[in-house]
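Issue: copy button drops trailing tokens. Both records pasted manually instead:
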Amino acid sequence: MHFCTVTLMFMLAAGLAAADLGPPAWVQVKAAAVKPDSCHCIKDLGEYGLGAGAWCSPRWGAELDFLAGRLHSRHTGASADQRQLLGSVLFGLNPGGARWFPYVRAGAGGARVAAPYSLAAGTTTRFAFLAGIGVQGLFGRHLLASAEARGLTIETQAERTEKQVLLGLGLRWGGSGYPSTPGIPK
């Protein structure tokens, strides 16, 4: 089911890329290395997911991320699923760049954490807050790659923080709305 959803999103993105409509937008697959730094009982983990976003102006953008992973105990063998849906505002640090677009991000969302790491009897959804810094790189007209470092706080009964390093690869389209911005290829 997930493969079908991902395939459908990329087919939609490819169709929109061919049309080259609207502001610069993207979809990408993401992989993350995660270090849970406030709870030494959880092993470092990997997460995967999807991101979709757009630059609303040459300076401001927004992105929605979905990440999923499995938490594993360092000591007991316990494990639990974790899913995150995070919305962010992006602030471009170099809106006139030719191919590289550094940015900072701040956002919030929800983290669905299963027991025992939910610190409840079952699965709970908790608020999550994030801040990060990253860069998008354009390769050709429609290929996008990104790298980012971010900090994430999940508000369980005992606040848990994570450090994440993410890499993304995706499709980009649009850009016709910013003719005065030479750094955003059309």
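Record 2 (pasted manually too):
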Amino acid sequence: MKLTNLTTVFVILLCALMVNAGILDHLDALKNNIINNFKTGNKKTDISFGGSLTSKLDVYYQENDTSNLKPVVIYIHGGAWFYGDKIKFTKMGDLLVEEGFVGVISNYILFPFGNFDKMFNDVYKTVEWTYKNIKKYGGDPNRIILSGHSAGAHLVALTTIKSTLRMENLNQNLSPLPRLEKLVLFSGPYDFDNYDNITKLLTNSEEEVDHGFVERLATVLFRSKNIGPTDILKKIGDGQLTDLGFPKVNFYYSKEDNIVP
């Protein structure tokens, strides 16, 4: 099967997941956030951060109080790597300001226009930009919380692990990111083998899948190696890695989530 045909099949499967997740609810939330975007202030929108040409970020902050530095939350949206936009999270940005944070909500290049390596690069550049620039918005560069949901959580985990290990990305060896206060990850898929019932069906086995059909398909479609955060960690011997660049990570899951249970 040609790559274009595989891509079509994959997109159809993702669309089916969107319907299962309640696409009407997503559209309603998008409408409400677009309306909210025009109603509220305390933000700077569509800032270029040095990543993909089409990717921008928004900063939510107290415009009349930038001298008192506040903790920062960077949020990376989900959407199965092929849909989603920062415009859907304007209410989240406002809430972060109300709770005493500076919020950074960023876009990243989406499939099929970009592969995992380019998505990862956008997240990496977002953190770099925030560390270098957030002070003028009243944010404390030494208190950055990096957060993501679903596909965004996967990209956040991949970004922190690959940068800490100084792995190669887009033909460049990475430098570790500035130290983060913590990661907060919602409903993230960290190993594609965890969702591979196809291989179990084909092999008639209940054993744990390792580099099965779904993972190999994702590697081909997204034209990237090292796509699973846990796969990277499994290759590291015990005691060889003591610090990932942050002291704490919070994982959140929901029993009502039918996509990443």
